[in-house]
Amino acid sequence: MFLFSGCGKNIPGATPTETAPAAIPATPTSLPMALRVNGEGILLSEYEAELTRLQQAQTTLGQVTTPEEQRNRVIQNFTDQLLLAQAATQAGFGVDDATIQARIDKLVSDIGGIDKLTTWQSANGYTDESFRAALKRAILTTWQRDQIINSVPTTAVQIHARQILVQDEANASAAYSQLQSGLDFATLAFAYDPVLGGDLGWFPVGMLTQPEVEAAAFAVQPGEYTEVVKSKIGYHIVFVIERDPAHTLSIDARRTLQEKTLVEWLDASRAVSNIVVLVP
Questions:
Q1: CA distance 52 to 46
Q2: Which of 71, 74, 134, 191 has its CA 20 to 30 Å from the CA of residue 98?
Q3: Spelled out in words, what is the top-level CATH class assigned to the domain 33-151+258-277?
Q4: Which of 73, 87, 85 shows the shortest CA–CA distance to 134?
Q5: Cβ distance 188 to 164 under 8 Å?
Q6: CA torsion 239→243→249→252, rounded to 10°?
Q7: Residue 10, pLDDT score
Q8: Per-residue pLDDT for 235 more than 60?
């Protein structure tokens, strides 16, 4: 996902509904295609160049993936870019030739001359035409991405809670029995976690990595605790300290919600789009 690193991260200077996109001009069919999304295509040559860039990057980073994983990643990235770019176009955001040329002129200045830009393009598998196409798509994609993630508010319903987390059901049942007998939750929580006392801080829906624990926590009121909740990492009992209907999101919490919002938007867009993969 290219949420915060920038869509089209290989392109320097690229930063700026539930119905299938309509009136998207079809890509000319005279050249072989790798992918079509709602009639708009990615040339096979673009796909192959991007695949090579991915392979080179993974080699540099020491990452090992299978050819199928590499193929799927490139196809998904191109699909996501096209869906976002198409939505930007339908929303009325346009990128004309003058805008693209202005970006390229700035790149030439920043990089130290046209020869250096040409060398960079060649080293990264771009022709002048494919570079301009990729830059235009990246600008559109980034604009639409920003519309989506900026729709996430800066406040949300949140709870401040602490938990008791143990690895086996017997210990969880014993802790729950102690609470039922009247033992103070914080006192018992510090017995299990002497440093933090199980304090989870403030969090909104969608923040915890164990959704069943989160759901149980939001189902009780301040001053109450949940029953024992089983998750992949153990057995939890959660006590809600306080609740705020409009608590300011932390930077990490808002980023997490923005990522989820973008993923959900892309999933919904794929579900109503005509996506045809033309490479094996």
A1: 10
A2: 74
A3: mainly alpha
A4: 85
A5: yes
A6: 0
A7: 52
A8: yes
DSSP characters over 137-199: HHHHHHHHHHHHHTTS-SEEEEEEEEEEEESSHHHHHHHHHHHHTT--HHHHHHHH-TTTTTE
Query: Using 50, 70 and 90 to split pLDDT, how confident is the model at 4?
Result: very low
Q: How far apart are CA 31 and CA 33, in angstroms?
A: 6
Measure the CA–CA gap between 241 and 159, rounded to whole angstroms. 7
- pLDDT (tens digit per residue) in 16-72: 433 334 444 444 457 899 999 999 999 999 999 999 999 999 999 999 999 999 999
Domain ranges of the chain: 33-151+258-277, 156-248
CATH of region 156-248: 3.10.50.40
Amino acid at residue number 260: K
Coil, strand, or helix at residue 52? helix
Q: Which one-letter amino acid corresponds to residue 117? A: L
Question: Going by C-beta distance under 8 Å and a sequence separation of 6 or more, which residues neighbour residue 95?
Answer: 136, 139, 140
Alpha-carbon distance of 253 to 213, in angstroms, equals 17
Residue 30 pLDDT: 76
How far is Cα 185 from Cα 166, in angstroms, rounded to an integer?
14
